[in-house]
Design brief:
This protein is of the alpha/beta class. It is 30% helix and 22% strand. The chain folds into two domains: 29-279, Alanine racemase (TIM Barrel); 281-410, Lyase, Ornithine Decarboxylase, Chain A, domain 1. Strands 1, 10, 11, 12, 13, 14, 15, 16 and 17 form a nine-stranded mixed sheet that branches. A hairpin with a 5-residue loop joins strand 16 and strand 17. Helix 8 (199-220) packs parallel to helix 9 (246-261). The protein is globular. The relative contact order is 0.15. The structure holds pyridoxal-5'-phosphate. Pyridoxal-5'-phosphate (PLP) binds at residues 54, 56-57, 75, 98, 191, 194, 230-233, 274-277, 371.
Length: 423
Amino acid sequence: MSEKTFPLSKRDLEGLSAQYPTPFYVYDEKAIRAHARRFMKAFSRFPNFREYYAVKACPNPYILKILASEGIGADCSSLPELILSERAGIEGENIMFSSNETPESEYVYANLKGAVINLDDITHIDYLEKSLGAFPELISFRYNPGPLREGGNSIIGKPEEAKYGLTRDQLFDAYAKSRDKGAKRFALHTMVASNELNPQFFVDTAKMLFELCVELKDRLGIRIEFVDLGGGIGIPYRPGQVAVDYDFVADGIERAYRELITPEGLDPLGISFECGRPFTGPYGWLVTRAIHEKHIYRDYVGVDASMADLMRPGMYGAYHHVSVAGKENAPATKTYDVVGSLCENCDKFAVQRELPEIERGDFVIVHDAGAHGRAMGFNYNAKLRAGELLLREDGTIVEIRRRETIDDYFATIDFKKLPGFKA
Ligand SMILES: *Cc1c(COP(=O)(O)O)cnc(C)c1O
């Protein structure tokens, strides 16, 4: 069972908020490192094991740098993400470029930097060749098993309804075609789940890819250098849920490897993941303050953050645990909707949630916000996004992204050209 903790006390927050007004994000470096080590230890038994952190989950170079120092690479899907990874010191084949609907210029940059290019469609073979003027030596394809695979949820959907990847038949044509174009090294990728908590799911994904490796060898004589199981490892957002057991996953993958890969002479086959969520999700919190309460047909607590800072509850109806600093052990005697200030009724961090009585000025902590949190922020209603703080291992706090200002919001508008404008 996951226990919902927060590394700072109410007193800490009072001091901190004098310097950094709420709302802000806090990430816990020690906890991020401890998890990364646990993950890498469980899977290090596999040849050339790699984890490419999905940059989109928390695109902050300070966080990427911490992960890089634990031996973790980057999974990117846009030019700015490639540049961000580079600035965090992640380079070459430590970058997986798992993009989709990719513009030419981004393929050119990814190739220039020596990233592993993972194609999302068979037509992208010609597109890539034309973009680069030549075909790369190393190429990866993303497989979408469609109806051949159960799974999916409201985040990623059923495989056959998902826009990603190549069908099974296309995959064989794609490897043959890319070999004809001069590719010499091949990787195979899939991502068929999101926020999945069943560890067996990832073992089954590995089996699916291992079987494909054997078939690619038998039918085309193509040897896959590594398989990438994608992201999708879930986290226990709800207190009663259980985190994915990495040793269970690694043991299951190892058994499948011995059964399917070793006897076929395909050992060593590299294994990789590109998880985002479990690496930072549980180790980041959105800290807000209650500024209003109202009682109509329901009881509401209004906080100074909004869905523009964390859209998961509004977008997917996702559960995020909420606690109140200093009232961690107080009885949950009230039922509240905890809401933000957007002019959208889905701007609710918690709906009909049992919580201790909340007073104005209380710090309301939204848990498990370290992945797909600040990253998904937006500026609707001219909301200015929260900044990010890092709690370092020595207990000190550094600001790793300041909060947005009105000038940031106006930065893309040239007011001097506005008729009648006076500065
Ligand atoms: C979003 C995404 C990931 C990371 O997903 P998590 O759920 O954060 O682990 C990895 N790979 C691809 C291609 C993605 O789109």
